């Protein structure tokens, strides 16, 4: 009998926190300030949605625990690095992250830059450990998946498009392209890393699921930026509107944005529905992601 969703998430969140704590160098190890700032930026906060997606897809595909841990921690390290850099004055210039001062505010700009660089390197170190996978091609595939999701065709490219789009009118299609890279690529990578031991059919279904849920995640973020307060978000509320950034709410309106999130949820669920109980956690996570605002 499977545990309920709340119990499962609590268990996985506790576990990934331990894995990450053991992965990031201790703050008493040189260079002290850099390692302290790395731990500050990663540990003790965040919803860990990407890690949970990795573990959920690993359960469906019977991926080994050590491989799932490596995928979950690597994707969280990449995500944390992106947030550290995203908050810097040269990017979105935000003073608050996960309910506490952003890395560059707690330390300084130079340290924040190095934290992001070091976390990115550490993520690939985690995935490249000798003997992680019995099949070397599976491990190479995981490295390739994370690299593509993080680079100019993925998260970094999406951020570049986002910065270039401030104050410019965008169509819904253009906005989807931007967020498929900026947010969706890493969410897709998280599920694919967990599914690295799966069959071709499983991976195809999970990829469809991930792309729809990744887009829905961003739609919900745009809704929350309008409807939620700073304390609830853990970051500055209303910042997108204040920065004149194009969002799903600004393009579609609030009601239609909520409809879009629901439609994406339905397609995602349909993709993995044939796998029955094996896809339970993925289905529960889809509900959690798309109902944060409602």
Care to describe what's here?
By secondary structure, the chain is an all-alpha fold. It has a single domain, classed as Farnesyl Diphosphate Synthase (Orthogonal Bundle), CATH 1.10.600.10. 70% of the residues lie in helices and 1% in strands. The chain contains 15 helices and 2 strands. The protein has helices at 5-23, 32-42, 49-61, 65-86, 103-106, 109-127, 136-150, 155-164, 172-194, 200-227, 230-233, 239-242, 248-252, 254-272, 280-290; strands at 96-97, 100-101. It has a two-stranded antiparallel ribbon with strand order 1-2. Helix 3 crosses helix 9 (172-194) and helix 4 packs antiparallel against helix 6 (109-127). The two termini are 30 Å apart.
Short description:
With 294 residues, the protein is mainly α.
What is the topological layout?
Layout: H1 5-23, H2 32-42, H3 49-61, H4 65-86, E1 96-97, E2 100-101, H5 103-106, H6 109-127, H7 136-150, H8 155-164, H9 172-194, H10 200-227, H11 230-233, H12 239-242, H13 248-252, H14 254-272, H15 280-290
Antiparallel strand pairs: 1-2
């Amino acid at each position: 009998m499977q545990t309920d969703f709340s119990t499962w998430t609590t268990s996985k969140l506790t576990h990934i926190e331990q894995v990450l704590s053991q992965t990031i160098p201790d703050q008493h190890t040189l260079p002290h300030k850099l390692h302290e700032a790395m731990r500050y930026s990663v540990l003790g906060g965040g919803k860990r949605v990407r890690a949970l997606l990795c573990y959920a897809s690993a359960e469906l595909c019977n991926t080994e625990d050590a491989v799932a841990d490596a995928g979950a921690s690597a994707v969280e390290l990449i995500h944390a690095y992106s947030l550290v850099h995203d908050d810097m004055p040269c990017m979105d210039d935000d003073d608050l992250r996960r309910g506490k001062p952003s890395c560059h505010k707690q330390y300084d700009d130079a340290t924040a830059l190095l934290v992001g660089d070091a976390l990115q390197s550490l993520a690939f170190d985690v995935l490249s450990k000798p003997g992680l996978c019995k099949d070397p091609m599976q491990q190479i595939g995981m490295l390739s998946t994370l690299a593509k999701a993080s680079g100019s065709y993925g998260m970094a490219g999406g951020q570049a498009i986002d910065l270039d789009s401030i104050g410019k009118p965008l169509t819904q299609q253009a906005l989807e392209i931007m967020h498929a890279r900026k947010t969706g690529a890493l969410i897709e990578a998280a599920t694919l890393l967990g599914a690295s031991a799966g069959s071709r059919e499983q991976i195809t279904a999970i990829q469809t699921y991930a792309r729809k849920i990744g887009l829905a995640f961003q739609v919900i973020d745009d809704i929350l930026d309008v409807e939620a307060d700073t304390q609830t978000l853990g970051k500055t509320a209303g910042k997108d509107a204040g920065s004149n950034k194009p969002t799903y709410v600004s393009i579609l309106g609030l009601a239609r944005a909520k409809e879009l999130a629901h439609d994406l949820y339905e397609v995602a669920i349909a993709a993995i529905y044939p796998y029955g109980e094996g896809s339970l956690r993925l289905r529960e996570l889809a509900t959690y992601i798309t109902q944060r605002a409602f």
